[in-house]
Structure formats: C-alpha cells, structure tokens
Amino acid sequence: MDLSRDEAVLLMASLACSSDGNATPEEQELVRKRLRPHLARLGQAGEKRAFDRLYTLLSERGPEWALDTVGRALPSRDDRLDALRLAAEVVDSDGSVTSEEMDHLETMAHTLGLSHNDLRQATRRSR
After folding, report:
1. Is the pLDDT of residue 20 over 80?
2. Disulfide engineering: 109 pairs with which of 46, 73, 99, 114, CB 3.0-4.6 Å?
C-alpha cells in the first residue's frame, strides 16, 4: 500500500500517539492541530476519513507495517527527520515522556534509518 507524504506523516504521528498504549487527549489534539495544514485540502469530512483509515490500518496491520510503510513513503532523510520530530513532539505534549514512549521513538528512528543522535536532536527540539 502506498501512502502520500501527508498520510505518512499522519501515520507516524498516530504511532507516537499510541506508543505507550494511552493516547491522551493532549496527544490526540496535537496530532490534529499540527497536521491540519497538511490535511486542510481534504475538508473536515476528508480529514476524518484519513484519520479513520489510518487508525484502522494501524490496528489491523500493526506498528511494524506502519513504520515500514512510512519509510517507503518518506524517501528523503529530511522528511523522515520531520516525521520523527513530530512524533517526539506528540509524545511530549502531555508533559512527560514515558520509558515506553522513548523506546518507541528509538524503534521509529532505527526503522527509518535515523541515528541515535537524530533522535536526541528531535527530542530536544520538541521541548
């Protein structure tokens, strides 16, 4: 399955939102707020369909599929770094980053071919 750049970024943010098994209202709202400019062209109904589609795919196929798909949809290193920064911002949006969330961010970075240093920079920027 091929995703657009916007869908890939949305999927990455969704992965971050659910990384500790508890998608807080703050995390969900940040995902919607930050991605609204990317999804504005879809309209409100289209935005809801995009979120619903990706959450369904994520629950059916799992996080490994999602990360592989994101990696293919974001071939440029800069796009992958942007997605990782957004993921770091999402997990920090509720004021704390759990060990599960940090482990998940590390897995995301590794799967996307990014370094531990890239992850450190992404998490620093999110604060």
Report:
1. no
2. 114
CB count within 10 Å of CB 37 equals: 9
Query: For the chain, which domains are there?
Result: 5-125 (1.10.3680.10)
Q: In terms of pLDDT, which residue wins out, 81 or 14?
A: 81
d(CA 105, CA 111): 10
Structure tokens at 64: 């490994």
The whole-model pTM stands at 0.79
Distance CA 123, CA 7 (A): 22
In angstroms, the CA 2 to CA 29 distance is 26
Task: Round to whole Å and give the CA distance between 8 and 71.
Answer: 8
